Amino acid sequence: MSTTAASPTAKSQRLPILFILMTVVIDAMGIGLIMPVMPALIREVASSGLSQAAIWGGILASSFAVMQFLFAPMVGRLSDAFGRKPVLLVSLLVLAVDYAVLAVAGSIWLLLAARIVGGITSATHSTAFAFMSDISEGEDKAKRFGLIGAAFGAGFVLGPALGGFMAEFGTRAPFYLAGALALTNAIFGWLVLPETVTEKTRRPFRFKGVNPFSAFAALSHLPSIRSLSLIYFLYQLATVVYPAIWAYFGVERFGWSPGMIGISLMLYGIGSAFVQGVLVGPVIKWLGERRTVIFGLTVECGTFVLLGFITSGTITLILTPLIAIGGVGLPALQGIIAQKVPDDSQGELQGVLSSITSIAMVIGPLMLTQLFAWATAEGNPIYQPGAPFLLSGVLMLIALSLFSASRRPQTDGTSNPI
Q: What whole-number distance in Å separates Cα of residue 302 and Cα of residue 307?
């Protein structure tokens, strides 16, 4: 039986899926490897103390996220118009150059410029999700979104581990390795990746749709998408607490070294990879997508409360892999949203979801690090390093309440649970 690019056989999907997963791994690894070394790197290039480095760290994180927000819809639209393959390959090549700049940056301003370019490049998550959606049907979408989540978790395993190991050779060494991996993966993708955008599903590129706000407006006529997008935003805003303050929290609460922070991130990545790659499919099959979302959000609420009050670094390290269990809810939520959008709009939808994530990444670090600074300030009557986690728990509880109350409209005018 012959196949088309839009519907490849299961065997022919293996290498392309591997490429997509490797692309996500490299993106996530870049985040993971930079977290343990960023304080030292910023102090090195800015000749500043730790507190000033933390402020610059927030600026760099927000700048990165702003670029993701601005460019994610454009990248999604470009992939709908010109194909997933060229967008992914060009982005990987630019990412390799970006890592090279990070490796040689001698000023905070060059570091900032590199992070801005990196934010644009990392907007290809929308294209990766769109590719998976192109080759998947029904509940397979959620399962393969879970694979992407597992790849992201694997990147968090490799990133801190490589970052900690390569840091022995200097704060710049991890970036040379990451750049080489991005370049190698681009070559691999050029060889194995098929194009899944066909003439039937191809959409003309229009600048009107590249404005991230107009992309939201394009989907706002779907009430279920609006409500689910708000839930998705609250989830992303709550979980930003990990990249935003984990390193500072570990130092303040437990006195962890950068190496120990890297180990804790690696443990979280192991747990996340297992949950996303192994548990998501069976849990969705067992509970269904809706109940999986509720289960995941509930576990997240409990996890944030625990982290808000825990005082033992050893117990935290032991529990860190289990923290990721709540992550089963996110791919189920993404799967529910994806099934409500036509096939020719998947790139646009994933661009919108990436933009929502970016908004959370803009707001979250500023909000949560300010709360952390206030809760740990000398002379403050309240000393609570875990305060950001408690705030995230409140946000997750709101998301859980909204999802539990959500209904989906039917064609006969009635409504049933999502």
A: 9
Whether 245 maps to a domain, the answer reads yes
Residue 354 counted as domain residue: yes
The residues, any chain, with a CB within 8 Å of residue 321's CB and separated by 6 or more, are 267, 268, 270, 271, 274
In degrees, rounded to 5, the angle at the alpha carbon of residue 302 between the alpha carbons of residues 352 and 257 is: 85
**CA distance linking residue 25 with residue 18, whole number of Å:** 10
Length of the chain: 418
Residue with tokens 């500072």: 248
What letter does residue 381 receive in the DSSP assignment? S
CA distance 9 to 17: 12
Instruction: Give Rg (Cα) of the chain.
Output: 21
Query: What is the pLDDT tens value at each position of the chain, 418 positions in all?
Result: 334 444 455 556 778 888 888 888 887 777 777 777 777 787 788 776 556 666 777 788 788 878 877 777 777 777 777 778 888 888 889 888 988 998 888 888 998 898 888 888 776 667 777 788 777 776 677 777 778 877 876 777 788 777 777 777 777 888 888 888 889 988 988 888 777 776 666 666 666 656 666 656 655 655 557 778 889 999 999 999 888 888 778 878 888 877 787 788 888 878 887 887 788 888 888 888 888 999 999 999 999 999 999 999 999 988 888 888 888 888 888 888 887 777 666 666 766 777 788 788 888 888 888 888 788 877 778 888 899 999 999 999 999 999 988 765 444 444 444 5
User: Element (H or E) spanning 416, and its range?
Assistant: strand 415-416
**Of 121, 148, 147, 155, nearest to 35 (Cα)?**
155
Reduced to 3 states, what is the DSSP secondary structure of residue 286? Answer: helix
Residue 229 lies in domain: 10-191+222-406
Is there a domain that residue 93 lies in?
A: yes
Tell me the HSE value of 363 on the side-chain side, using a 13 A CA sphere.
Answer: 12
CA distance 368 to 406: 28
Structural domains counted in the chain: 1
Burial of residue 304, with CB atoms counted within 10 A of its CB: 0-12 exposed, 13-18 middle, 19 or more buried: buried
Helical ranges in 311-345 per DSSP H: 313-323, 329-338
- Quick one: tokens of 283? 């849990």
- Give the global pTM: 0.71
CATH assignment at residue 328? 1.20.1250.20
Domain contains 182: yes
